[in-house]
């Protein structure tokens, strides 16, 4: 029972204002990119569908890389580690695009 009494106390650290402001800055940048996506979604004409999709995918990759660099601390790592993550990712994206393209070609032949 003594162990339970010893672990029931919680000590709170004071807020680190620099870390909190850094998180708000990151959230603001991600919000800004999302707002740009919304502007493109509602202002580009419907016949520019491929352009819209390209912009959305591009901005999504920008947000993903920014999140990875900030929250997974990848921007502070060595370049070799960054490339060892980026090259397989590029290959996987290329493979998915190639499979979709080939699948569409096969279905159009039938």
> How many distinct helices?
4
SSE succession = HHHH
The overall number of domains is: 2
Q: Tell me roughly what share of residues is in helical segments.
A: over 70%
Distance between the termini: 73 Å
Arithmetic mean of pLDDT: 87
Shape: extended
Main sheet attributes: strand count, strand direction, barrel closure: none
Quick rundown:
This protein is an all-alpha fold and 110 residues long.
Describe the structure.
The chain is mostly helical and 110 residues long. It has 2 domains: 60 residues; 34 residues. Helices cover 78% and strands 0% of the residues. It contains 4 helices and no strands. The radius of gyration is 22 Å and the shape is extended. The model has no long low-confidence stretch (mean pLDDT 87).
What does the secondary structure layout of this molecule look like, with pairings?
Blueprint: H1 2-6, H2 17-43, H3 49-71, H4 79-109
What key phrases describe this protein's structure?
single chain, 110 residues, mainly alpha, 2 domains, 4 helices, extended
């Amino acid at each position: 029972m003594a162990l339970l009494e010893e672990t029931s106390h919680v000590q709170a650290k004071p807020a680190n204002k620099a870390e909190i402001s850094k998180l708000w800055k990151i959230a603001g940048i991600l919000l800004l990119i999302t707002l740009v996506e919304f502007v493109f979604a509602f202002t580009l004409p419907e016949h520019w569908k491929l352009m819209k999709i390209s912009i959305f995918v591009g901005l999504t990759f920008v947000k993903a890389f920014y999140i990875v660099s900030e929250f997974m601390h990848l921007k502070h790592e060595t370049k070799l580690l960054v490339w060892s993550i980026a090259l397989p990712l590029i290959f996987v994206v290329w493979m998915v695009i190639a499979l979709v393209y080939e699948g569409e070609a096969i279905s159009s032949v039938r």
